[in-house]
């Protein structure tokens, strides 16, 4: 059975799980972990993705991320490729470091956000890397210590977690700590990482009861949420795919978009590709990047190569282009 494609859109909340190939270590020591965190922070800053929870275990790691304009696939490719090259070079090894496909699960925020923060941050305790919550606060390779103020990671959005408990930091930290304590005895939460329907309705007991009652719920292994949320995500994703198919069936490609924008802004194609920051050229590139990435599904990496700019610059262009298109009412066809 072919693997399903990943679902992503700006603002989507993802629980990401990455494991070493054959469950081997992807971090051999603290130097590996600190290098990984430095790389993660740089990539999150450049792609403007938000990280709310994370935990590094010797043979795997968890992240709770919200993507911005840069797709999750780009964020993860940079992170995993960079770490694999570093790790192989440092430890004089060759070959793959990670399992072929990392797991990314779209999450229904209202229901699961705090549950996932707790589940992820308790990973080192479940893995016996620490003995208790006091040691977990001191553990430098989990976001829990950052939320409790024991460590600093500027890229971690700790205040957005604490605000769910209290507007003042100290009371929020106390309430958060109680919440974490309440989850210590929960153990492995298959409902947070297992199959789609099992997650969506609350476990095998609920699934069995639904089958006996002839109740059918929409589910998807890529999504953590109730049936309505699953339907919304899949519907939005299908609309995007249908739109891309329609445009491509009408021979709309990046070259078509460049030509279209050149006529809209009265520029030549050569002028659009010239280096420089002239206002009209920046405007043209922004519209092109927006339509190419959001309408055609082109990668930001490909658009960056086309215009000789970084992925982060393409991301800014996409956001700028979205505003221009909305304000001016421009249509790609």
UniProtKB/TrEMBL annotation:
SMART domains: Bac_DnaA_C, Y1_Tnp. Pfam families: Bac_DnaA_C, Y1_Tnp. InterPro entries: DnaA_C (IPR013159), Transposase_17 (IPR002686), Transposase_17_sf (IPR036515), Trp_repressor/repl_initiator (IPR010921). Residues 9-123 form the Transposase IS200-like domain. GO terms for biological process: DNA replication initiation; DNA transposition; regulation of DNA replication. Residues 253-321 form the Chromosomal replication initiator DnaA C-terminal domain. GO terms for molecular function: ATP binding; sequence-specific DNA binding; transposase activity. PANTHER family: TRANSPOSASE IS200-LIKE DOMAIN-CONTAINING PROTEIN, TRANSPOSASE, Y1_TNP DOMAIN-CONTAINING. This is Transposase. It comes from Candidatus Magnetoglobus multicellularis str. Araruama. The lineage of its organism: Bacteria, Pseudomonadati, Thermodesulfobacteriota, Desulfobacteria, Desulfobacterales.
């Amino acid at each position: 059975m072919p693997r399903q494609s990943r679902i992503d859109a700006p603002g989507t909340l993802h629980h990401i799980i990455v494991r070493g190939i054959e469950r081997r270590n992807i971090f051999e020591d603290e130097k590996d972990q600190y290098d990984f965190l430095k790389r993660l922070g740089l990539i999150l800053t450049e792609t403007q993705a938000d990280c709310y929870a994370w935990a590094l275990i010797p043979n795997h790691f968890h992240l709770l991320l919200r993507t911005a304009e840069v797709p999750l696939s780009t964020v993860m490719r940079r992170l995993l490729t960079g770490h694999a090259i570093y790790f192989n070079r440092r430890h004089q090894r060759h070959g793959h470091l990670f399992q072929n496909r990392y797991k990314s699960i779209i999450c229904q925020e209202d229901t699961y956000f705090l549950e996932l923060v707790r589940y992820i941050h308790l990973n080192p305790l479940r893995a016996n890397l620490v003995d208790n919550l006091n040691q977990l606060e001191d553990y430098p390779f989990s976001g829990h210590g950052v939320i409790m103020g024991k460590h600093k990671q500027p890229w971690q959005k700790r205040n957005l977690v604490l605000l769910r408990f209290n507007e003042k930091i100290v009371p929020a930290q106390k309430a958060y700590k109680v919440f974490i304590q309440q989850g210590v005895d929960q153990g492995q939460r298959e409902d947070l990482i297992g199959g789609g329907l099992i997650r969506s309705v609350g476990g095998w007991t609920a699934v069995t009861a639904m089958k006996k009652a002839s109740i059918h719920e929409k589910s998807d292994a890529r999504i953590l949420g109730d049936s309505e949320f699953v339907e919304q995500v899949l519907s939005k994703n299908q609309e995007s795919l249908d739109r891309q198919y329609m445009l491509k069936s009408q021979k709309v490609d990046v070259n078509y978009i460049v030509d279209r924008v050149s006529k809209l802004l009265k520029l030549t194609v050569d002028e659009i590709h010239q280096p420089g920051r002239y206002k009209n050229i920046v405007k043209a590139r922004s519209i092109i990047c927006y339509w190419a990435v959001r309408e055609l599904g082109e990668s930001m990496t490909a658009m960056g190569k086309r215009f000789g700019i970084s992925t982060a610059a393409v991301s800014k262009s996409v956001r700028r282009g979205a505003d221009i298109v909305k304000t001016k009412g421009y249509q790609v066809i």
